Amino acid sequence: MFTQVTKGIKVSVQTSFEGTFFKNYRMHYAFGYTITIENLSKDTVQLTARHWDIFDALKDPETVDGEGVIGRKPVIKPGKSHTYSSGCLLASPIGAMKGHYHMVNFTNAEEFEVEIPTFKFSAPFAIN
């Protein structure tokens, strides 16, 4: 598990290899990840946007920006958490992702970024 805390917000990531499949005459490697965002601060916060840098051993890095996570903009009260699962397709059996969430603190209206730790993907057969 990969974990990082920024301004009282703890982000933990668990990854999994989901399998391979052919699409457009190319092999693709499917990876899943589950992220838990815990509010260790005393203030209520809302996740409003995300930024991802995706690294694939066989392709140039890709950047993805978007609103919320999986169609939601969760509000996380002190002591509570939000967990969601998503996935990533790579051309290689090895890769990584990192990024940040854009958050708003409801107490003081401060906007801030919460770092998502770099987490690695690797198919079991790709590592010796």
From TrEMBL:
Pfam families (UniProt xref): DUF525
Entry-linked Gene3D superfamilies: ApaG domain
Domain of life: Bacteria
ApaG domain ranges (all copies): 3-128
SUPFAM superfamilies: ApaG-like
Gene Ontology biological-process annotations: error-free translesion synthesis
NCBIfam families from the UniProt entry: PRK05461.1
Protein name as annotated: Co2+/Mg2+ efflux protein ApaG
Organism: Flagellimonas hadalis
